[in-house]
Design a protein that fits this description.
Length: about 400
């Protein structure tokens, strides 16, 4: 497949999301294909951080807990995340991390299904999810983990009347395969189990419809496609129907019914507030808030169309120009995919390093996968063309042979 620079420019000119790129700070010599790992910096986030530091902390001091709404940040940020995941108000708080929130909801879900001893998860899930499940199950008698892809071939085979909770990723962090959220929820609930969705790689990449699917619980991070900044707090969704009975194990004072009564004995707050734990990391909410306000102007249908266009174009170009050079597309070619593309090559690690030296940033996931994220808010069709040109050149030059690529830093 050949495509000219002019035709890519024409696609960019017709892109209804094109103007969003100007709202981000991006180095001009970089093609940033790692927005699925750490989103780019919205200009508004820089302003907001300065405001929070100078005015709210510097001038407002401790009074800002009330006057600047600090105490309520988990709720106010939660209400901004809610429309992005198809949740009516009052079901989302933003706090802690995805790993911690997964622990909380898993524990809560297990207690809602007494007498059932099995948690189903995916063998290929993002490892922290499995590690947290292991940790939670380690605190309980007689519970076991059943892995799809190891103990059972698929979800249907993993389900029976012993299953209490099913933990699933909406988009696979490696391959980008997209699960059918509504159908999998229906299947799991059909056998009496509760479902926890991990939305880390779908929120901000495509519309998510938790309420419509009748989902039970969900967690996800805000520093990937949502552009909340490194380590920005994560979100947790609990369907309203579970909120009065669900109890989470990290019973800190901010989830208490009356945090400032300082009484002995934990009593959970009503509603979603009981999924809070403790003092919110106020400085981390600052860039996130600005990012979430930017998302209020975004049409998620347009995000999805552009995501499919960019990832589709990338896969077409890679297959036609680099298929013979041993690059294999791992991501599904139909629409059951998220917004990143996974490729495989014998020298994936060296190619990712060589691309970085050419200004094209992607990442590597052991053992042999290259990942390229296409964040629709700030990437252009022209970036896709440039990335494939750089990869073609790096592979033709056998750039992976360079000795400096033999050393791997901690974060790949
Ligand atoms: C990024 C990611 C996480 C990250 O968890 P943290 O607690 O933020 O470190 C968890 N699960 C999935 C599927 C992810 O993609």
């Amino acid at each position: 497949m050949t495509i000219t620079d002019d035709s890519l420019a024409a696609l960019d000119a017709a892109d209804p999301l094109a103007a969003f790129r100007d709202r981000f700070r991006l180095p001009s010599d970089v093609v940033y294909l790692v927005g699925n790992s750490l989103g780019a910096l919205p200009e508004a986030a820089r302003t907001r951080v300065t405001e929070v530091v100078d005015e709210e902390w510097g001038d407002g001091l401790v009074g800002s807990w009330n006057t600047a709404g600090w105490f309520d940040k988990p709720r106010t940020a939660g209400e901004l995340v809610a429309p992005l995941i198809g949740a009516a108000p009052g079901q989302v708080v933003v706090c802690d991390t995805t790993s911690l929130n997964l622990y909380k909801v898993l524990f809560a879900a297990l207690a809602l299904r007494p007498g059932r001893g099995v948690v189903v998860a995916e063998a290929h899930a993002f490892p922290t999810d499995l590690y947290m499940i292991e940790g939670a199950l380690g605190t309980q008698e007689g519970k076991q983990l059943r892995l799809i892809g190891r103990d059972a071939p698929d979800l249907a085979d993993a389900l029976d009347s012993d299953v209490a909770v099913v933990v699933l990723s909406h988009v696979d962090y490696r391959t980008s395969a997209l699960a059918d959220l509504a159908e999998a929820t229906r299947q799991a609930q059909g056998c009496g189990a509760l479902v926890v969705w991990d939305l880390c790689h779908s929120v901000g990449a495509l519309p998510v419809e938790l309420d419509a699917a009748g989902a039970d619980f969900a967690v996800g991070c805000t520093y990937k496609y949502l552009n909340g900044g490194p380590g920005s707090p994560a979100f947790v969704y609990v369907a309203r129907r579970h909120q009065d009975t669900a109890r989470q194990p990290l019973s800190g004072w901010h989830g208490h019914r009356a945090p400032f009564a300082f009484t002995v004995g934990y009593e959970p707050a009503d509603g979603i507030d009981r999924f809070r734990t403790s003092t919110p990391q106020i400085l981390s909410y600052a860039p996130l808030e600005a990012s979430l306000r930017l998302w209020q102007d975004v049409d998620l249908g347009q995000v999805r169309s552009k995501s499919l266009a960019l990832t589709g174009l990338f896969m077409d170009l890679v297959e036609s120009r680099l298929g013979d050079a041993g690059v294999e597309v791992v991501t599904p070619r139909d629409e059951r995919r998220g917004s990143h593309v996974a490729l495989r090559h014998e020298h994936s690690y060296g190619i990712v390093r060589a691309l970085a030296d050419r200004g094209v940033l992607g990442d590597f996931r052991a053992p042999d996968t290259m990942r390229f994220g296409f964040a629709p808010l700030y990437l252009r069709h022209a970036d896709v063309g440039n990335a494939v040109d750089a990869m073609e050149e790096a592979i033709a030059a056998r750039a992976w042979e360079r000795p400096e690529y033999a050393n791997r830093p901690t974060v790949t």
